[in-house]
Every structure is written in structure tokens, then in C-alpha cells.
Specification:
The structure holds two protein chains of two kinds. Chain A is of the alpha/beta class. Chain A has seven helices and ten strands. Chain A has helices at about 45-55, 75-85, 105-115, 120-130, 145-160, 175-190, 205-210, and strands at about 5-15, 20-30, 35-40, 60-65, 70, 90, 165-170, 195-200, 210-215, 220. Chain A is globular and about 50 Å long. In chain B, the strands form three sheets. A nine-stranded mixed beta sheet of chain B has the order 6-7-5-8-4-3-10-1-11. A nine-stranded mixed beta sheet of chain B has the order 16-17-15-18-14-13-19-12-20, sandwiched between helices. In chain B, strand 16 and strand 17 (about 605-615) form a beta hairpin. In chain B, helix 1 (about 1-35) runs antiparallel to helix 26 (about 675-715) and helix 10 crosses helix 16 (about 395-430). The longest helix of chain B has about 45 residues, at about 675-715. The chains are: A alpha/beta, B alpha+beta. The interface of A and B includes residues 90, 92, 95, 141 and 157 of A.
């Protein structure tokens, strides 16, 4: 099976004040299509850095990150943005919904950015909202939704363009355990043919994952 | 933030300080010209006073009286120029005692002027421009024929001299009387050292007025300047909006910080006091800086305003910004009040919030309480517009404040509604960037509204003044074409100040002009001024039958139908009836048929108002009488204008030079045609409002900075959202386009406010105010060209203001933005 996401001897360091922080050290990983992977590790272990590199939000200091065979550090900022739009869906811990847009509009945002007509974009968004169980809440603003509902909207947004790679950064970190479990189950439901990488502290995520990658001090163990 | 406060304060301080400076300068200039004199004795109109009166006044114990006579001569040549000659007393010490030895005219020069026949003392500027020196000869044309004047010396420049102008010369009174054939008559006598009652008793039948009483031209200029206070108020409100908006945003940004303090136990009163103290310091520094900046800026405005004020007559010299203690206090107080109010409103809202709610991560509270404000704003705006009709100066200013307040209250809701409605359109036109731009404006409806009002308010001044200018221009053009049935006119004074001048030309010019080949008809007009209810009104005498015949020949007799009416004409020619201008009727409240008592050099004369005629000659009103009646009452047969119709109007230029040649040989007269009168009328109207231009530019700069500031704040506040949009695939180009569209939408909003606000401002308060002050009710005109200009300006200003924010938005770091709490 072809890898959709590959890390080849990837290191990432940051300058923080006068000191150099080595967030990732010589990491090599491969993620196959249809795989649900949990990346776990303590705070500051480098798991978020790994997710940002996986999502083409950042580029490695050394080594290579390939998404669908494309080397991210060889791409310009706009090309990486296009790659994110077409290939990657993001789910964040704090949902990151646009507060003035309704649930339906929030879900439709990537489709609208892609240039789809609003009719098509809203139709797709409505279908996705239906799939995540929020058909009746589509006109609600984020502040009118519970945390779990907001995360489901964020999930629908991540999937509206049918991204083959879904990256979730602590998707349950801001939810109670029951709601968190529901979100993990929902993410699991969308794994058909899609690679899902969940960065988490949550032990429940390990239970639903096909594979668990443990990371500590920037290294995979 | 201090800079924003300073700019806002500077805007209105510069405005009122410069206007105050002009006002003060007009009074100061008036005093400077008057010297130590206390009273001025004149005849009614241009009749002057007899020299015997001077002797009677001088017999009053303690009286110092200086006589003056004024006349003009023409210096012929390719660039013919008119020289105004003042006959002054060199035989007594009256000049010295009233005007002091200010080293303006040296003793030796004075002696030469007194002793050398037909010698004049000219201004240094005039001497330099004509390369004249002591002993030079000036060939001139006078009312009594050609003459040679000898230069006795030059007057040193002084503020008072500057007011008199460059083309002025002084001559010994006796010599001037002989030169102009005006023996025994003076124009004015300036007096000091006597009580008014005693002087009035001696000068019975003549006008005795305080030299502090402004001349008609100074009063006219003062009125034009004072009307600018309305614009100053608009500038102040725009400044307040900019300050309020900037301060409010900064306080709102700290909502979470305030919630943190509340959470750890800080009482509300302590937080509010801390915020107010902080902004008191910022406001104080900003306001003081603003006042100082305002004084500097006012010099720029003064430069523009003085040109407008002096356009007709030199009224103002050496005007300085009038920075009094009270101006300083007002500037700082308004700045401080605005800053504190801007800080207190969101601070009170913030400290009333539950700290829990404010501390919750990523909750965006869309608590727009704009609907209630909207419904309060509607009646406030309506009240403001309604008050515009009341017309008094103070009420007009209140109307402007209420209109702005009403707009400020209702605009945020209007922004929300308009943005919601526009979202579909902008999405279709600009895709997702358009959708997002409209949504961004909704996120800060008050800030968007204030920016739109600030820039729109600045641009509204342009449209309002254009509405006034176009209205007045339309009315005066129509009036000049219909009411003046001549092709060219001969007048004693220059084109630009002929309306104020009392100079005359001899009646013999009428027959001389009539005999010129190519002249088909002539008639004479006499103009003077008369005191009426504390004001100076214009009185015009026409050669009735010849004037009506001129109208008949021009095909404009319809305009003079009231004068042509046989019953009216009988009363008119008999000196029992008079026609009054529409503005005279409006200003005095008199009606057709009413009797008026008009002071004339022959005493008070009662007339009945026979009819009302449209006229824009004089903002205090005009009365028309028959020329012979006027000559009898004014005890003079001289004319102000000789109006000439040509057999072939296409020969206008050739005939104008022919008439110029005829008059310049013998008289100090000027020849003008109707197009020149139209031109000068347009210039006067335009220059009257040109002072607003400097303020418009200043306010536009403030509006520009306000929009740029607002867009940058918007980008900073939405950093997380921008990061997210970049994360999910939005390109930097799409984000830049979003900010550009936001600016475009603000520009369109400001343009619309500028157009609508300007039209309403021009049609309601300004038009009504002009009516109350001058009696002119000019027609409502839509200034299409200015409206188009304003709309384009608004968009250009807004888009230019977006340049820096556009660069900023593309530089927002994606990673730190989405991970930042």
C-alpha cells in the first residue's frame, strides 16, 4: 500500500530567545492510506511539531516530509496552501471556527476558498453536517453550540473537500470524556480510505487507533 | 494611540484657531487702519462731507480731526493699472496725532509731498513693481484729464499699509482737491478727543460711527469667515469619531485582561478607575500634542482662508492663529472628554461581564446591542435635520451635532444590515474574499460605522459646499443674464471690488459713450449705500426709461415687468415708490406695499415698496429707485456705471478696447463685459467656500489614517482566524484581496455617506443658514460632478489606506496564529 505521508530523517529546531530548541530529531515515519494513527507523548515532546510538518504548515530543518509524494520543503507558501486545501483536513483542540459564521458557513469555507459556487459549497456542507448529526443546528453560530458540537462542525469542515489526510490536534482536549469519546468514534467513522493522524494525550484515542506512535523529547520510541 | 488622539484634536483645533485668527485679524486690521481715531464722520452714500464741517469739528475743545478724500487715477499703457490716491492733511499735526509717527512716511518725504506740486507718496511695493524712485514722474489719466504726478517718496511697509494695498498713493489734501476738481468736499473725517454726543450735535445730518464698527466689506468678510465655524464643528465631530473609535478598540482588546483582574479579585470600581486614569494620561498628552499640532496646521488653513477673505477687498493682514487660553482649554477638554467617554463605554461593559465568560477560550461574543441604538438614532437624526430649518446660527450648529450623533447611533445597525444584504452580492462578485470581507465588517460594526462616518463626513463637506456653490452660481448666472441688459459697462472702480466701491464717474460719459460708432444704447446707474436698521443696504438708481428700453432691445423686458408696469412706474419716477430685492424683504420682514424710511444725504425719505425683485448684488439687501430721484436725494449727478449696448455684440472685444481707450484718455474708469461679471461672481462664490478645502483635505487625511488604523487593528484582532484560513488552504493573495475588498466597501460606504450627507447638509442647514444671513434662497442643485469626485476620492482614500494592512495580512504567521491562545 502506498504511503500518503512520509517523514524521512526529519529534524526541526527552533530558536527561542538565545537557545536552540530541538523539537524533532531525525524522525522517519510512514503513514499508509486508510490508517488511523495515534501520536502520543507528554507536553513538549514534539508531537504538535510533527503534526504541523505533516500538515505542511511548517517545513523541516533537515530531512524530508512528503505528502502524496510531494516534498513540502520544495514548495512555496501558496503551493503548500493549495496542497492543504486539496489534501489535508485539520481538526484543532479549540475548534477554530469563525465566530461570525454559522455552522453551515463554517463547514463550507474550504469549498468556497477552492472557488466552488456557494450553492455547491453549501450543499456539500449540509450533507457533511447531516453526517456528523448537526443538520438541525446548521444555522447556529459557534457560540450557540456546545463544545462537542463545535468540534463536530470542525470535523465536517475538515472533510468537506474529501481530504485523503485528516490531522487532528488534541481533538478531545477541550471536551468532557463522554463527548471526547463520541468525537473519536465519529472520526473513526470517516476513516474509510482516509489516513487519520490524531495527536493526543487521551488514552481513549490509543484504543481506537490502528497504530500508536510514542514520541518523547523529539524522538519516536 | 496618543498619535490618533493628537490627530483628532488637531483637526478641530486647527479649524477653530485659524477661523478665530481671521476673525481677530479683521477686527485688529480695522483698528490698525483707524489709528488713534475714535470716530469717523461720513455723508450718507458717496456724497461725502463739506470741508466746513472739518472746521466746525476742530472747534470742539480737545478735538483732533483728520480729513480724507479718495479718488482714482488710471496709469495708461498696455497693462493699465488704477492708482488709488488718498488726499491727506499735511498742513496740521492731525495725521501725526491720530496715526502717530510710525516711521511709515519720513519727515522729509512728508515735506516734499506738502510742498512739491502734484506730488505723491507711493507704496514701496508699487515703487518696486514700476521701478519708480523719488523724483520719477507718473503719467496718469484723471477724471479731469491727463496729468503728471511726481514721486515724493515711498511709504514703508506696515500691516496697515498692506491692508490698503499696493496700488495706493498719498497726496496733500489741497493738491488732491485741485487735481480731482473736488474742492470743498471730503470723503471722511476721522476724529478723536470728543464725546460722541458732542460730535453728533456738530455733525448733524452726517453719519458719525465708531471706527471699531466694521466697514461693509469687513462685515461681509467676517460673515463669510464665521460661516466656516459650522465646518469647524464638523471637523471637531470627525476628530471625536476617530479618537473614540481608536480608544474603544484598544480597550476592547483588553477585555480578557480585565476579566483576569476580576477573576483574581479586583473590584469593578478599582478597574474602572485604573482604566480612566490611564486614558486620562493618554488623553491629556494626546490633547496637548493635538492642540500644538493644530496651531501648526492652522497656519496652513489660514493661508487658504486669507486668500478667500481678501479676494474682494484687502481686509486681513498678518493673521496669526488665535490661540487664546480658552481655545487651549477647549481643545484639551474636548479631546479629554472624547477619550474618557470612548474608554468608559467599553470599560463599563467589560467590567459588568462575568469574568468567566470573558476568560473562556475562543468565545466570540456577538453582543451587538445596535438595534436599540438604531431606534434612538433615527429620531435624533430626524431632530437634527428638522432643526436645520430653524435657521439661527446656534440652532444650525446644534443641528449638525445632533445629525452626527444620530448617525453615530444608527450606523452600526445599518452596517450590520447592509453587510448581511451585501454578502451575497460581494460573494458573487469577488468569491470567498468578498464573502469574508463583508463578514469582517460585520465583526466590528461600530468601528466600521465610525470610519465610514469620519471619512464620509469629510467628503460631505465637499458635496455640501459644491451644492452651495452650484446653487448660488446657477442663481447668479440666471440673474446676471436676465437683469443686466448691457454688453459692456464702464465703472469707476476695479472689477473685483466694484460692489463695495463708492467711486463715481461723471454723467457726461453717457453722451460721450452714446456717440461712439457701434454703440446702440446707453443708460446710467448710480449705486450707494445707506444705513438701515443697523446695517448697510445698497441703493441703486437707474435711468428708468432707458433701462427699460435696454431690456426691450435685449428681449428681457419680462424680467423688468414690475418696473415697466405703468402704475408702478408713475410712483417710481415720482420718488414715492421703490423696488426691494427678495433678500431685503426676507431679512427685514417687510412686505410689498409697506412704507420704509430711508436715510439719505438729504434726510430721511419715506418710500412705499412697489415690488420685490430677484437680486444677488448685496447680501444685506438692495433698494432700486429712479436715477433722478436718487441724484436729488444724494445731491450728486455722478454715476457709478455707464451701461452700453452694442449694435453688433460679436464685436465685443473690439468695442471694449475702443471704450477703454475713450475712457482712459480722460477718466480713471474701467470697462467690463458681462462674461467678466459672471466670472467674478463665480470667483466670489468659489472663494467664499475655498476655505473649506483645507479642512476637507485635513479631514480626509484623518479619515485615511482612521481606515488604515482600523484595517490593521482588524487584521491583528483576526490573527487567529487568518491563521486558520491559511491552514485550511486560503492563499495569501485571497487574504490580500479580502482586506482590499473590506477597504473598498468602507470607501463605498463613506462615499455614499459623503454624497447623501453632503446633499442634505448643502440643501438643509447651509442653504437655510445662507437664507437667514443673506436672504438668498438659492435653488436646490445636484452637484453631479462633485458627487462623482467624492465617490472616487472615497474609494481611492480607502484603498490607499489598505496598502499597509494588505502587507500585514500576508505576513501573519500561520503556525503561531492558530496555536496562540
Amino acid at each position: 500500500m502506498a504511503a500518503i505521508l512520509e517523514f524521512e530523517n526529519v529534524s526541526r529546531s527552533y530558536q527561542e530567545g538565545s537557545s536552540q530548541i530541538q523539537a524533532l530529531k531525525d524522525v522517519s515515519l510512514s503513514f499508509q492510506a486508510g490508517e488511523l494513527v495515534a501520536v502520543v507523548g507528554p507536553s513538549g515532546s514534539g508531537k504538535s511539531t510533527l503534526l504541523h510538518l505533516a500538515g505542511a504548515l511548517d517545513i523541516p530543518s533537515s530531512g524530508k516530509v512528503r505528502i502524496n509524494g510531494q516534498n513540502t520543503d520544495a514548495m512555496g507558501e501558496d503551493a503548500r496552501a493549495k496542497l492543504r486545501l486539496k489534501t489535508i483536513g485539520f481538526v484543532f483542540q479549540f475548534f477554530n471556527l469563525i465566530p461570525t459564521l454559522s455552522a453551515l458557513e463554517n463547514v463550507a469555507v474550504p469549498a468556497l476558498i477552492e472557488g466552488q459556487s456557494s450553492t455547491t459549497a453549501y450543499k456539500k456542507a449540509a450533507e457533511l453536517l447531516d453526517l456528523v448529526g448537526l443538520a438541525l443546528r446548521s444555522s447556529h453560530l459557534p457560540e450557540q453550540l456546545s463544545g462537542g458540537e463545535q468540534q463536530r462542525v470542525a470535523l465536517a469542515r475538515a472533510l468537506v473537500l474529501g481530504a485523503p489526510l485528516l490531522l487532528a490536534d488534541e481533538p478531545t482536549g477541550n471536551l468532557d470524556s463522554e463527548t471526547g469519546m463520541q468525537i473519536l468514534r465519529l472520526i473513526g467513522e470517516f476513516r474509510q480510505g482516509r489516513t487519520i493522524v490524531i495527536v493526543t494525550h487521551d488514552a481513549k484515542a490509543e484504543a481506537v487507533a490502528d497504530r500508536v506512535i510514542r514520541i518523547k523529547d523529539g524522538q519516536v520510541h | 494611540m496618543i498619535f490618533a488622539v493628537a490627530l483628532g484634536v488637531a483637526l478641530f483645533v486647527s479649524s477653530y484657531v485659524s477661523i478665530g485668527g481671521i476673525e481677530e485679524s479683521i477686527h485688529r486690521s480695522s483698528r490698525a487702519v483707524a489709528g488713534n481715531a475714535k470716530w469717523m464722520v461720513t455723508g450718507s452714500g458717496a456724497g461725502g462731507v463739506p470741508k466746513s464741517l472739518l472746521e466746525r469739528i476742530r472747534q470742539i475743545p480737545g478735538a483732533v480731526a483728520a480729513p480724507f478724500m479718495k479718488a482714482s487715477v488710471m496709469i495708461p499703457g498696455k497693462d493699465a493699472v488704477k492708482l488709488e490716491i488718498w488726499g491727506v492733511d499735511t498742513q496740521t499735526d492731525s495725521m501725526l496725532r491720530l496715526f502717530g509717527n510710525q516711521q511709515e512716511i519720513g519727515v522729509d518725504t512728508m515735506a516734499r509731498m506738502a510742498l512739491m506740486p502734484q506730488s505723491v507718496v507711493i507704496s514701496e511695493a508699487f515703487a518696486a513693481s514700476r521701478n519708480l524712485r523719488q523724483g520719477s514722474t507718473i503719467h496718469v489719466a484723471t477724471r479731469s484729464g491727463p496729468a503728471d504726478l511726481s514721486v515724493a517718496g515711498a511709504v514703508h511697509e506696515s500691516p496697515a499699509m498692506k491692508l490698503l494695498g499696493e496700488d495706493v498713493a498719498f497726496m496733500d489734501l489741497h493738491q488732491a482737491e485741485a487735481l480731482f476738481g473736488q474742492q470743498g468736499r471730503l470723503d471722511t473725517i476721522q476724529v478723536a478727543g470728543v464725546p460722541a454726543d458732542e460730535l453728533k450735535a456738530v455733525a448733524k445730518g452726517y453719519q458719525v460711527r465708531d471706527v471699531d464698527t466694521l466697514s461693509p466689506e469687513a462685515r461681509d468678510a467676517l460673515l463669510r469667515v464665521q460661516s466656516l465655524y459650522g465646518l469647524s464643528l464638523v471637523a471637531m465631530l470627525i476628530g471625536c469619531f476617530v479618537v473614540f473609535s481608536s480608544v474603544q478598540v484598544t480597550v476592547l482588546e483588553r477585555m480578557k485582561e480585565l476579566a483576569t483582574f476580576r477573576a483574581i479579585g479586583a473590584p469593578r470600581s478599582q478597574l474602572l478607575a485604573a482604566i480612566l486614569l490611564e486614558w486620562l494620561i493618554v488623553g491629556l498628552i494626546g490633547s496637548v500634542a493635538g492642540v500644538l499640532l493644530g496651531v501648526a496646521l492652522s497656519s496652513v488653513i489660514l493661508h487658504a482662508v486669507i486668500g478667500a477673505v481678501n479676494s474682494m477687498f484687502p481686509i486681513v493682514a498678518n493673521a496669526q492663529p488665535a490661540m487664546s487660553q480658552s481655545s487651549f482649554v477647549i481643545g484639551v477638554a474636548v479631546g479629554l472628554f472624547t477619550v474618557l467617554a470612548a474608554a468608559a463605554v467599553p470599560a463599563l461593559a467589560a467590567i459588568r461581564e462575568s469574568p468567566l465568560l470573558a476568560l473562556r477560550p475562543h468565545t466570540y461574543r456577538l453582543k451587538h446591542r445596535q438595534a436599540a441604538a438604531f431606534w434612538i438614532g433615527v429620531p435624533v437624526l430626524a431632530l437634527g435635520l428638522g432643526l436645520s430649518f430653524s435657521g439661527t446660527y446656534v440652532r444650525t450648529l446644534i443641528a449638525i451635532v445632533l445629525s452626527f450623533l444620530g448617525l453615530a447611533l444608527l450606523m452600526p445597525q445599518a452596517v450590520l444590515t447592509a453587510a448581511a444584504l451585501a454578502r451575497t452580492i460581494t460573494s458573487r462578485l469577488f468569491g470567498f474574499s468578498g464573502f469574508l470581507a463583508t463578514d469582517n465588517l460585520r465583526k466590528a460594526p461600530q468601528r466600521t460605522a465610525f470610519n465610514v462616518i469620519a471619512l464620509g463626513g469629510a467628503l460631505a463637506i465637499m458635496v455640501a459646499t459644491a451644492a452651495v456653490v452650484d446653487g448660488l452660481t446657477t442663481a447668479t448666472h440666471k440673474w446676471i443674464r436676465a437683469s443686466l441688459p448691457f454688453d459692456i459697462s464702464v465703472t469707476a472702480s476695479g472689477l473685483s471690488n466694484s460692489v463695495y466701491s463708492e467711486e463715481t464717474i461723471p454723467r457726461s460719459l453717457l453722451s460721450k459713450a452714446a456717440q461712439l460708432p457701434g454703440v446702440s444704447w446707453v443708460y446710467g446707474v448710480r449705486k450707494s449705500f445707506a444705513p438701515f436698521r443697523g446695517d448697510e443696504i445698497m441703493v441703486v438708481g437707474i435711468q428708468t426709461r432707458d433701462y427699460l428700453e435696454a431690456h426691450r432691445r435685449k428681449g428681457s423686458l419680462w424680467w423688468a415687468h414690475l418696473i415697466a408696469d405703468p402704475d408702478n412706474q408713475r410712483e417710481f419716477l415720482a420718488g414715492r415708490g421703490i423696488f426691494a430685492s427678495e433678500n431685503f424683504i426676507a431679512l427685514t420682514g417687510l412686505h410689498v406695499g409697506d412704507a420704509i424710511d430711508l436715510p439719505t444725504p438729504s434726510g430721511t425719505k419715506r418710500f412705499r415698496i412697489l415690488g420685490e425683485i430677484e437680486d444677488y448684488s448685496w447680501p444685506r439687501g438692495l433698494l432700486v429707485t429712479d436715477l433722478d430721484v436718487m441724484c436729488r436725494l444724494w445731491k450728486s449727478s455722478k454715476l457709478t456705471y455707464v451701461d452700453i449696448q452694442l449694435s453688433d455684440p460679436s464685436q465685443l472685444a473690439a468695442m471694449q478696447s475702443k471704450v477703454t481707450k475713450m475712457t482712459s484718455d480722460d477718466y480713471a474708469a474701467e470697462v467690463i463685459n458681462r462674461s467678466q461679471i459672471l466670472g467674478i461672481a463665480d470667483d466670489v462664490v468659489r472663494q467664499s467656500t475655498s476655505a473649506a478645502d483645507a479642512q476637507v483635505w485635513l479631514a480626509s487625511i484623518i479619515g485615511f489614517l482612521g481606515i488604515a488604523n482600523s484595517l490593521i487593528i482588524g487584521v491583528l484582532q483576526r490573527q487567529r482566524e487568518i491563521g486558520l484560513l491559511r491552514a485550511v488552504g486560503m492563499s495569501a493573495g485571497q487574504l490580500r484581496r479580502t482586506v482590499a475588498i473590506e477597504a473598498l466597501l468602507i470607501g463605498i460606504g463613506a462615499g455614499l455617506i459623503g454624497i447623501v450627507g453632503g446633499l442634505l447638509g448643502g440643501w438643509l442647514p447651509l442653504r437655510h443658514f445662507t437664507f437667514v444671513v443673506t436672504g438668498y434662497l438659492y435653488p436646490i442643485v445636484v452637484p453631479w460632478a462633485e458627487m462623482a469626485k467624492v465617490f472616487v476620492c472615497a474609494i481611492v482614500i480607502a484603498v490607499l489606506a489598505a496598502i499597509v494592512p494588505i502587507r500585514r495580512v500576508a505576513q501573519v504567521p500561520v503556525l503561531t496564529s492558530i496555536t496562540v491562545e
